[in-house]
UniProtKB/TrEMBL annotation:
Reverse transcriptase/retrotransposon-derived protein RNase H-like domain ranges (all copies): 101-198
Residue ranges of coiled coil: none
Name of the molecule in the record: Retrovirus-related Pol polyprotein from transposon 17.6
InterPro entries: DNA/RNA_pol_sf, Rev_trsase/Diguanyl_cyclase, RT_RNaseH_2, Viral_Replic_Matur_Polypro
Length: 199
């Protein structure tokens, strides 16, 4: 707690020096957990906001699929291989086609729903400790997870995934793996600065 108070003191001094003000209604101090940018920050790490994890039960229209996919995209940093699992659902949203809910869509929906119901807690990276980037490639998507080891246990920091478009689908596996590293390094740029990354 002392360290936290010292850090707050430094922040307040800098704010005063630059004549910046904080809105007291939007500030919280000395709390164990709170909402920040739509996520829950706790002692354990970054958690998904429970309000965003509530899911529609049936998919009857394009609009319901769009709403569900909006929630998936908002929580993608918590879902391993989100883009790969979402591919059948995105197919139902293509313009010009009829809405058709297939068995493949139902399976993808149930898997995503289960993952959203119990998302993992993402850890905050510890300075000076290496990060590990694991990548996965398939015919339709690439995925990665940034992990840090803590007391012999690997804990996720951030999940990324991307549906492959056009010519990207024809890439060789090694090219898709390289693309996965590029996508992860762009999306996770703040995590890649001043830290050793093991791929």
């Amino acid at each position: 707690m002392e360290e936290h108070c010292e850090a707050l003191g430094r922040v307040f001094r800098i704010l005063r020096e630059h004549r910046l003000r904080l809105n007291p209604k939007k500030c919280s101090f000395g709390v164990r957990a709170g909402k920040f940018l739509g996520f829950m920050l706790t002692e354990r790490g970054i958690e998904a906001n429970p309000e965003k994890c509530q899911v529609v039960t049936n998919m009857r229209s394009v609009k319901e699929v769009q709403q569900f996919m909006g929630k998936v995209i908002a929580l993608a940093r918590f879902i391993s291989k989100a883009a790969e699992m979402s591919t059948p659902l995105f197919a139902t949203l293509k313009k010009g086609g009829r809405f058709a809910w297939t068995d493949e869509c139902e399976e993808a929906f149930l898997r995503l729903k289960a993952m959203m119901a119990a998302p993992p807690v993402l850890t905050r990276p510890r300075p000076g400790m290496p990060l590990y980037l694991y990548i996965s490639v398939s015919d339709d998507a690439i995925s990665s997870v940034l992990i840090q080891e803590e007391r012999g246990e690997q804990r996720p920091v951030y999940f990324t995934s991307k549906v492959l478009q056009g010519i990207e689908r024809r890439y060789q596996k090694i090219e898709k793996a390289a693309l996965a590293v590029v996508v992860a390094s762009r999306r996770l740029r703040p995590y890649f600065q001043n830290v050793s990354i093991i791929v």
